[in-house]
Amino acid sequence: MAKRTAEEVVEIRNLIDSTEGRWFRTIYVKRTTGEIREMVCRVGVKAYVNGIGMKYDARSRNLMPVWVANEGKQGADAYRMIDLEGVLELKAEGQHLKYVA
């Protein structure tokens, strides 16, 4: 699988940041298993956090933490990470970015 260039990662990150907590749709390749995943998610959600924070810097690893409704254990809400280098498609703010795998 082809990885996104640094410029493409910045473009993807900026588009996601521009949503300011509104829903967006993405299709990406999971870093751990290589499977293709589609999500409708949002950033900026503060529910269910413990106040400690993450033990690593997601930004330096080109990951974007997002919140997905009804996807966790037994349909509960859950946090996930999007691999920005593995994004194949992103729809947000009236824009549609599509990349070749």
Account of the 3D structure:
This protein is mainly beta and 101 residues long. The protein has one domain (6-98). The chain has one helix at 6-18; strands at residues 24-29, 36-41, 63-68, 78-83, 87-92, 95-98. The strands form 2 sheets. Strands 2-1-5-6 form a 4-stranded antiparallel β-sheet, with helices on one face. The protein has a two-stranded antiparallel sheet with strand order 3-4. The radius of gyration is 13 Å and the shape is globular. The model has no long low-confidence stretch (mean pLDDT 87).
Beta-strand fraction estimate: 25-35%
Please trace the helix and strand order, writing H or E for each element: HEEEEEE
Residues in helices, as a percent range? 10-25%
Total helix count?
1
* Strand order of the biggest β-sheet: 2-1-5-6
Number of strands: 6
- How many domain modules? 1
Summarize the biggest pleated sheet.
4 strands, antiparallel
Shape: globular
What integer value in Å does the Rg equal?
13 Å
The separation of the N and C termini measures 6 Å
Low-confidence stretches: none
Q: What is this entry, summarized?
A:
This protein has one helix at 6-18; strands at 24-29, 36-41, 63-68, 78-83, 87-92, 95-98. The chain is mainly beta and 101 residues long.
Considering the chains and any ligands shown, give keywords for the structure.
single chain, mainly beta, four-stranded antiparallel β-sheet, two-stranded antiparallel sheet, 1 helix, about 15% helix, globular
